[in-house]
Amino acid sequence: MEPRVNIAAETLVNKPRSEISAHRFFLCVAPAMCLLMVWLTPPFQAADEYAHYFRIHQIAEGQWYGEKFDDRVGGFIPVSILKTTEAFDNMPRNPRQKLQWSLWRQTWSVPLCPEHRVARDFAGAGCMPSYAYLPQAAGMRIGTLFNSPPILLFYLARLANAFAWCLLVYLAVRLIPTASWLLTALALAPMSIFQAGSLSYDASINGLAFLFLALILRRAFAVDYSLNWKDLFIWMLIVVAIAASKLFYAALALLIFIVLPKLPGKRSHYVKTALFLAIVTAICFGLWTMAKSNYLTYDEYNPAFRDTQPFVPGSSPFLQARYLLNHPGAFLRAAATTMFTSDQYITWIGKLGWLDTPFPNWFYIGFGLLVLSIVAADRVPGVRILMLQRIFLVAIAALAAVSVLVSLYLFFTPVGADIIQGVQGRYFISIVPLVLIAFHGKLARIPSAWCCRFVPILLIMVQVITITIILRRYYF
Fold it and tell me: What is the mean pLDDT of residues 347-364?
């Protein structure tokens, strides 16, 4: 039997029909925005989309692991794919360069010709597990069955990624017992929706993280609920899919502590929790180790090709780990410098393209105020977050954020550097909801009807501004 969620019955019975619910609003707006992002954003104009494209094509052909050859990581890609990507090489990090329609039209006449191939490096994506790209690879696979041109394969992969993201986030918004408008607003933030319309696996990771949070909170606020193996199995699948792709998100597994034990079954609850964490840890570590078997450091990589890959000269995870253990204070200073002197807040909300398409400063201020207003207003009578649960949420978010910084410090930062390289706000899209929900109902109170009446209008305005920025960057 489905546990009852502790929400006042009158809230559901007497809710005015004129008030739109968050999940219905998301269902109306998100798919349309994703389609616009898929088609309005020119090919390969999301960060690292070239490498994602090559890796997805590998998987669509049934090659589950990236190739390691001649001290390089990548694969053998059809020449037609490289010819397609070259048509857009002059656009990334070049805000003055607009889409050339003549070149875009020419790419549609390039046949796939999979028999003609050339070696190509994509060291970062080549180390990623294949399941991180399953939606995109499924879409591309459909195109390869009909020998579609490379440009069509690209758009099919984008569409599949957007569909998967919409489905995951819709389920999260539909199932979360409280803060549904908050989750909707965070999902429809410019950077989040831009990722959803690209080839990036970050979209699926963010969608899965939102869904996992929703499922955990749904059980945490349920009446007379105790942990069962069915829920634990579903949660395990989601966490493994997230953490095996990006190990620093493994801290999200600790959200199981939000589901507090009931007195009659405390011992059983703790045993199941321990087993869940142990199994998740073992599986994630094993899968991540397998995926990283292709990893090469900057010094190990072929010197003729390493400067074209996302390596940082002087970086070495092994030497950096030793330095971290001997100088923990140096890491703390580097982490503080990185978080407080760079534009993490801006890149979390949205700095699109290859971080070459910012929004006006007033937009970042306004969107932050909108999110805080939703935190203050988005309440459901009968749902009460205990102080212990709030502490857990903040602690888990802090641990996940530190894990992000440690990972990038080890793999993408020169040994002993005073700032952590590679940190972007989009890596915190999956983490920020935990902090905001922890303060849910603790900020200045705004009438909850404000969410249903004004938040939809404001979020539509955010989408219009996002589309305008995209059009100005790439077309006008």
Answer: 96
Residue 400: pLDDT band with limits 50, 70, 90: very high
Encode the chain in three state secondary structure.
CCCEECCCHHHHHCCCCCCCCHHHHHHHHHHHHHHHHHHHCCCCCCCCHHHHHHHHHHHHCCCCCCEEECCEEEEEEEHHHHHHHHCCCCCCCCCCCCCCHHHHHHHCCCCCCCCCEEEEECHHHHCCCHHHHHHHHHHHHHHHHCCCCHHHHHHHHHHHHHHHHHHHHHHHHHHCCCCHHHHHHHHCCHHHHHHHCCCCCHHHHHHHHHHHHHHHHHHHCEECCCCCHHHHHHHHHHHHHHHCCCHHHHHHHHHHHHCCCCHHHHHHHHHHHHHHHHHHHHHHHHHHHHHHHHCCCCCCCCCCCHHHCCCCCCECHHHHHHHHHHCHHHHHHHHHHHHHHCCHHHHHHCCECCCCECCCHHHHHHHHHHHHHHHHHCCCCCCCCCHHHHHHHHHHHHHHHHHHHHHHHHHCCECCCCCCCCCCHHHHCCCHHHHHHHCCCCCCCCCCHHHHHHHHHHHHHHHHHHHHHHHHHHCC
pLDDT score, position 466 = 98
For 415-451, how does the pLDDT look when each residue is reduced to its tens digit (9 = 90+)? 999 999 989 999 999 999 999 999 887 766 777 777 7
Domain boundaries, the chain: 4-8+16-474
In angstroms, rounded to a whole number, what is the distance separating the alpha carbons of residues 259 and 212? 13
| Total-model pTM | 0.93
Query: What is the band of 153 on the pLDDT scale with cuts at 50, 70, 90?
Result: very high
- The pLDDT-based confidence of 285 (bands split at 50, 70, 90) is confident
